[in-house]
Amino acid sequence: MGVIPQSFKSGEITPQLALYTIRTKTISIIGAKLLKEKLEFLNDKGYRQVSLSVEKDNYAVKMYKNFGFTVIEEKENDYLMLYRLK
């Protein structure tokens, strides 16, 4: 899992997550745990939001939505999703 600083129109720095796993139940559980830990880490660092892009047909879209990510931009094959940290 990686984090890439991004800046949106507001000028606010928004980290962009990069998480790649193969699709198995065990790996999906690990991916969810990694995502939870990374969101907590970024929240503790004072970030207010985090983004990611994902292919529309990727099985992880459901997981991201369950975490609270929302689609903020839709392209032909991808979603740009945003999560607001607390």
TrEMBL record:
SUPFAM superfamilies: Acyl-CoA N-acyltransferases (Nat). The keyword Transferase applies. It comes from the Bacteria. InterPro entries: Acyl_CoA_acyltransferase, GNAT_dom. Keywords: Transferase. GO terms for molecular function: acyltransferase activity, transferring groups other than amino-acyl groups. Residues 30-75 form the N-acetyltransferase domain. It holds the Pfam family Acetyltransf_10. This is GNAT family N-acetyltransferase. It comes from Alkalibaculum sporogenes.
